[in-house]
Amino acid sequence: MSDQVESLEPDLQRIVDEARRPVALAAGARERLLEAIRAEPAPQRRAALAWMLEPRRFALPPLASAALAAGLVGIGVISGLLIHRDGPSAEQRAAVVAGAPQLPDSLAPRAVKFVLIAPMAARVSVVGDFNGWDASATPMQTLGTDGTWTVFVPLHPGLHTYQFVIDGSSFVTDPSAPLAPDDGYGSNSVLFVKGSSL
Amino acid sequence: MKILSWRLCALMLALLLPASTRAQDETSARTLDPLSRLDPAYRYAVEVLLDSARLAGLPTNPIESKALEGIAKNRNGRQIVIATRDVYRSLVRSRAALGPSATAAELTAGANALRVGITSVELAHMASTRGAGKELTMPLVVLSDLVTRGVARDTASQTIFQLWQKGAADEDFLGLWRGVERDIVSGTDPGVALMNRAREVPTRGPAPTTPPGARSENPETQNQ
Amino acid sequence: MSDAADVQRVLNGDVDAFSTLVDRYYERCARFAVRLLGNRDDAEDALQATFLRAYRSLAKYQERDKFSAWLYRILVNQCRSIAARRSHRERVFVREEALLLNAPDRRQGWTGEDDELVQRALAELEPLLREAFVLKYVEELSYEEMAQMTGVGVSALKMRVKRACDRLRARWEHIKG
Fold first, then answer.
1. pLDDT tens digits, residue range A164-190?
2. Which of B140, C18, C74, C104 is the most exposed place for a label (fewest CB within 10 A)?
3. What is the DSSP letter of C126?
4. pTM, rounded to two decimals
5. Which residues between 57 and 96 in chain A have a beta carbon less than 8 angstroms from any beta carbon of chain B?
6. In this structure, how many other beta carbons lie within 10 angstroms of the beta carbon of residue B94?
7. Quick count: other Cβ atoms within 10 Å of Cβ C156?
8. Which residues in chain A are closer than 8 Å to B65, comparing Cβ atoms?
């Protein structure tokens, strides 16, 4: 088929001609939209340089903000990568737990430590319902000596399913966690995070 | 100096960014709208399921998560829709059995239990004997795990139910699970492991009542 | 002023420049959303969601893309989400709604029946066919542009447009009423 505008037969052409007529939405629709836009914070240019020069304004680098938007609070993890070679410090862990000050204690995220012993792995990440099963979202760290991989992840109270991903492609369950039944993709690991009031 | 190295890392990151903005844009697009990786027809089916769940007041995260998991594991669209629909349906049944006051965690755990063959009647019975402040999540998680690892369904459900009736707490169920799992890994028959470990769980509450569907009071005579 | 220049003005702090962009595209987007979704309320939701998302992600807009293509990609996705959220029973084009859709345009001898005809015709098409048909014939886009906006390949889009036309032809007597 060619990409030129094909001449339609008269019946269809009539439909098209009518469909091309302008359409009015409800009165005030555009005003409502502009009001909503005025209520928004101004869009930020991706100013990596400006961010660097203004350390007081804590702006996450764009990759981190995308990860944040994905529901993975990587503050403890990502800042751990940037600042400490040894993994998150106690202050960072505390910062992670306090990440949602508006939530009541029973609903606030709890920092959960995932551990996997995989001495032959080159890289390990944890995937689950808290990060959209994205293998690049939550990489784990190792000291490199005994094959122990760890990461702290803030999780909201509730029942979570997860697995580890080894070297980007092998999905494995957590040997130290209960299993969920096979649902077409195999069995996942289950983690029950309780609220702090429980 | 910590701050210096922070700036250096930030500088490296900033220098890397222009070269990878397109990949990053795609990544951002993916993270902003991860379901967009599904073919539109399948995505449509998933959105309908999510909408139905929302209308029914069911948790949507397990449903959406199942779709995202399928995408991450490179399943085809049809498989993804089937698996996602199964999650939705089992949540509906779980809500019907556990009642409107069930938490999201209980609903998900109930859905898992239904999927290993626990009946809605058994589930409803557990829910009806739920005391104030007691959640069904942990016993159901352990129950589903045990059946998944090879314990006969009736054995597992009766044992868990009896412990629940006896007032076993979440830590008791977790401890039970750890013991059974260790025994299974060491080669013990799963059903036998459960029987042995269940005896170790401390009694806290009233005597057990017979759960519905039980054919015998003596679990050891059940076929494994 | 070009679209790209207006985007830069907004990012430089002149947020009112965004209303210039809204003004430029609002009516066209409104027409698209109404044709696709069949009622003004859903269309208004779609437009609000679209322009808000565009505003929030403005920093991600790259000048080498056409702004209209970038905006329409968001619009197409928002319309799809809204359409998916409607229950099956609700996905009907209401007869009365059709009469309310257009401001009366007596100079051009418009009658309510014609617009109702459009809505009845578009109601015959399943959402993805309707989407392709509207993009091709109402928005008058090339298949390449349509592919960019929908994430669907050119040949699949051509097939959808063809199936849309076949369906309309087959149902013409019923559509005419």
1. 999 998 999 998 999 999 988 999 999
2. C104
3. -
4. 0.51
5. 61-63, 66-67, 69-70, 82-83
6. 26
7. 15
8. 128-129, 132-133, 161
